[in-house]
Amino acid sequence: MAALRRFKFDKIAESQSLSAQEVDHLDRVSMVSLKTLKIPEQICNAKNDQQELCRVASHFAVQIAARGGGRRRGGKKKKKKGRNKLENLLEKKSYQCLKQHLAEYQNKWKDMEQMALAHAEDARHMGKNASPARMTFFPESCIAYTLHNFNAHYGVMYRVLHEIKTRLPHFVPRKVLVYSGVPAVAVVALNELYPSANSSSGGSGDRCRDRSCERIVAVESSDSFESISKYLTERIPNVMYQMNLYNNTRDKYDLVITSHTLLTLYDYNARNLYIKNMWERLSPGGILIIVESGTPTGFRMIHSIRELFITELKYDKFHFIAPCPHESICPLALTGKDWCHFAQRTHRLSHHIYCKGSRAKNVEELKYSYLVIRKCEGPRTVYKCEADALTPEEKSFFWPRVVLPTIKSGKHVLIDVCSSPQNFERLVVTKSASLIPNLRTPNGSILKGYGYKSARKLLWGDLFRFTKRISRPDARLYTPESTKQHLYRLYNKHKRRQNVTDVVDRQSREHFESRAVQFYGS
């Protein structure tokens, strides 16, 4: 009897592959970096009188300083007697347009000198409890400084807040404290991501009120910066300004932003006291954002603050949201040749408003270092591993961070990541690897692939959510063996001292012992 040859479609099991919505959700949480950004349109809409003032301020504050110190190859040019440098400079054809504004600036320079003498005299009679003199800047210089730095700093602040909103969708800052080096940068970026219910960029209804800020307190360092900030944020409601950071220390905030302020504090103890004060102003579950320049000095400032939290707080009192995927020592701090920093590109202002260098370049890139800390227990403490986490947002706290631009070559990608517990690894993702799709196992966990196509799209600062196929932990290992042994002896000495003087509960000791060296390296 011939066998029955036909398909039994009812016996084929359903596909366990992830849906397109789930894959898109995972990609959106992991790819947190942004490409070239633009500032909001309401900031660019400048009036004719503002354009004229910007042109005068930019010429006076930037181009004179840039071109005034140059020398010709023919040697020193003889200066005419009885004239200062500014008068000799104004004789050139390129600076003829500034002669008509010279008279009004001369009077302001005299006022500035008188004010400096007054502040110097007041400093001699100030007591210990007296407040310092308010710093006053030239209005035109403040305008030129804002135009020169606003776009780049706005892009950095928008990128940091965008990552917080993506990875913490239920976090809504009701009360915000902002202390930034550039006026109105953080306020404008915050309003773009968490728009107020009454602002021009925000919507209407109960949903918008639930996702909006109720109060924003901005601290500005001078009257001129405060006036500029008010002008740029006139459409944003619920913004309060104050000159002194310590006017009201009783209020608690859900979000505290401090940007490019640590470098102005030259003392180590002063920086620690400043950060502790900002931390005390946070409500439970609040977030502290620290942003500095992406230089070795800026990274050392961030790293010292990071070590302050690790050494003085228990693991269940705080956790790092970004960029660190762990609460251990920073591996980049041990190499001696690398520092943790990232970059963000932003479109420049129009050249008729402010000319910043070459007109051929319309995009500028600013490098920065940052640290985002939350005042509560984190997912890395609640869950033992990534598989135990419930949502993609919680899983993202276990994913390694891309700390350098990816190296793309033929049929493979090199990715330098910082991963848990405190490893600096170089991952190799090849095209010839077996292509495992994203599957869901019967117990509900996700089987991740190698992600070659996604690896070629990674940006500097993204999270790598795929399986580590080839790992080279010694690819960028610069620390000599003798240095490692010395650091290990320091760690053992510190450990013995802690056992004698400190009283640590068993859970905390087991948590720190389960990971690698906390203070002095691995």
UniProtKB/TrEMBL annotation:
GO terms for biological process: translation. SUPFAM superfamilies: S-adenosyl-L-methionine-dependent methyltransferases. One of its GO terms (cellular component) is mitochondrial small ribosomal subunit. It is found in: Mitochondrion. Keywords: Iron, Iron-sulfur, Metal-binding, Mitochondrion, Transit peptide. It holds the Pfam family Rsm22. InterPro entries: Mt_RNA_Methyltransferase (IPR052571), Ribosomal_Rsm22-like (IPR015324), SAM-dependent_MTases_sf (IPR029063). GO terms for molecular function: iron-sulfur cluster binding; metal ion binding; methyltransferase activity; structural constituent of ribosome. Mitochondrial ribosome (mitoribosome) assembly factor. Binds at the interface of the head and body domains of the mitochondrial small ribosomal subunit (mt-SSU), occluding the mRNA channel and preventing compaction of the head domain towards the body. Probable inactive methyltransferase: retains the characteristic folding and ability to bind S-adenosyl-L-methionine, but it probably lost its methyltransferase activity. This is Mitochondrial ribosomal protein S22.
